[in-house]
């Protein structure tokens, strides 16, 4: 089955535009985003001059993925502070822009706390704004470092679980440099395996309805010169049945205290398939994605997205007719079920890999210990 699927993307240009950057032109500081809704067709920058523009970019998924949402949220607070807006109001709007990825609220809180502490200490709004920006920059830097450490731990685990090498890894959604200050979470592990000459193939789930796998992961895999093959989400079952998957690597938007993992919708069915076919199901996420305040999977708020994302497809250059500005693929008025995420219970997760090491088996005790250890570092 192998070679008929061999495919390496044509697009090998290095990604020059980072997913996000802070700039200070003479007109005033801005947060510049690579607009992920336009990829892979165009690399277009989106310049946010205030927190409300960033809230809109978060809702529309121009900027997305748990770790990057945290970094963006922190810079958003800094942007509000530096530009003299009401910081508490901006922080509340940013933290509430999307509910499932805990990193967003964590990043916002961190910058806001730095702002409040500096304001209380100095009474000076400029110093408080500088403190918020310093907190955002620190978070950005830490995420870059965490990404490299997750990649190393994840590759170690893959090699341990699959001693033969030549890994065929299935991934879902997008978890690379487009979601991180560094090379990402699950994708960074696959990339490390590729660089070590031990990745035989990356199977990329297209990830309906917004196609983060097809549009973004395939884009990143092509640029990294990885051997990858795209599949519809529905095709994963037959791929497992054919014995073509050695491991599943995915990211996470929130990990509850009991080890339940919320990630892009379609992750849970992959975990069920992986268990049935005795394939390791590995979650890669920074410790900041573990939320000790969310008790279990049922307590995770799952974002519900508009139905038109399912009932329509959007294609540039084509006349639009649907309510969401796309081409209808279902009868007008069709109701759609469109949760952005699903929850995988801990018993289906082989390991959670973080920058502090891997947890396996996944238990509440092991996660609590990991969080405590990480706080001491
Ligand atoms: O809706 P999205 O595109 O923001 O969803 C992103 C995911 O589900 C990712 O898998 C998750 O954030 C982990 S990214 C490291």
Automatic annotation (TrEMBL):
Pathway this chain belongs to: Amino-acid biosynthesis; L-methionine biosynthesis via salvage pathway; L-methionine from S-methyl-5-thio-alpha-D-ribose 1-phosphate: step 1/6
Q: Where is this region: Disordered?
A: 1-20
Q: Which reaction does it catalyse?
A: 5-(methylsulfanyl)-alpha-D-ribose 1-phosphate = 5-(methylsulfanyl)-D-ribulose 1-phosphate
Q: Which HAMAP family match?
A: Salvage_MtnA
Corresponding gene? mtnA
Q: What is the protein's given name?
A: Methylthioribose-1-phosphate isomerase
Q: Which Gene3D superfamilies match?
A: translation initiation factor eif-2b, domain 1, Translation initiation factor eif-2b, domain 2
Q: Which organism is it from?
A: Streptomyces lancefieldiae
Q: What is its EC number?
A: 5.3.1.23
Q: Does the keyword Amino-acid biosynthesis apply?
A: yes
Q: Which UniProt keywords apply?
A: Amino-acid biosynthesis, Isomerase, Methionine biosynthesis
């Amino acid at each position: 089955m192998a070679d008929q699927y061999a495919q390496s993307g044509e697009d090998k240009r290095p990604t020059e535009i980072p997913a996000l950057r802070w700039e200070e032109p003479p007109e005033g500081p801005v947060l510049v985003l690579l607009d992920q809704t336009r990829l892979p067709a165009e690399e277009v920058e989106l310049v946010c001059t205030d927190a409300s523009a960033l809230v809109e970019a978060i809702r529309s998924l121009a900027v997305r993925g748990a770790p990057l949402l945290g970094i963006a949220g922190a810079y958003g607070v800094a942007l509000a502070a530096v530009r003299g807006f009401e910081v508490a109001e901006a922080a509340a709007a940013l933290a509430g822009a999307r509910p499932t990825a805990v990193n967003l609220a964590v990043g916002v809180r961190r910058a806001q706390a730095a702002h409040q502490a500096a304001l209380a200490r100095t009474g000076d709004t400029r110093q408080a704004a500088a403190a918020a920006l310093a907190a955002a920059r620190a978070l950005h830097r830490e995420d870059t470092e965490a990404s490299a450490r997750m990649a190393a731990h994840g590759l170690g685990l893959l090699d341990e679980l699959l001693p033969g090498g030549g890994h065929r890894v299935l991934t879902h959604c997008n978890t690379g440099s487009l979601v991180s200050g560094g090379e990402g979470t699950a994708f960074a592990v696959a990339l490390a395996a590729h660089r070590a000459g031990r990745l035989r193939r990356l199977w990329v789930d297209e990830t309906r309805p917004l196609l983060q796998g097809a549009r973004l992961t395939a884009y990143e895999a092509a640029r990294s010169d990885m051997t990858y093959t795209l599949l519809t989400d529905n095709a994963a079952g037959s791929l497992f049945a054919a014995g073509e998957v050695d491991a599943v690597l995915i990211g996470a938007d929130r990990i509850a205290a009991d080890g339940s993992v919320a990630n892009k919708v379609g992750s849970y069915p992959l975990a069920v398939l992986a268990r049935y076919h005795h394939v390791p199901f590995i979650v890669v996420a920074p410790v900041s994605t573990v939320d000790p305040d969310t008790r279990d999977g049922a307590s995770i708020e799952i974002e519900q997205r508009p139905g038109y994302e399912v009932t329509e497809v959007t294609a540039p250059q084509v006349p639009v007719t649907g309510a969401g500005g796309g081409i209808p693929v279902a009868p007008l008025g069709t109701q759609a079920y469109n949760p952005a995420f699903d929850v995988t219970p801990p018993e289906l997760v082989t390991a959670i890999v973080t920058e502090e090491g891997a947890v396996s088996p996944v238990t509440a005790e092991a996660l609590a210990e990991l969080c405590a250890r990480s706080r001491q570092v």
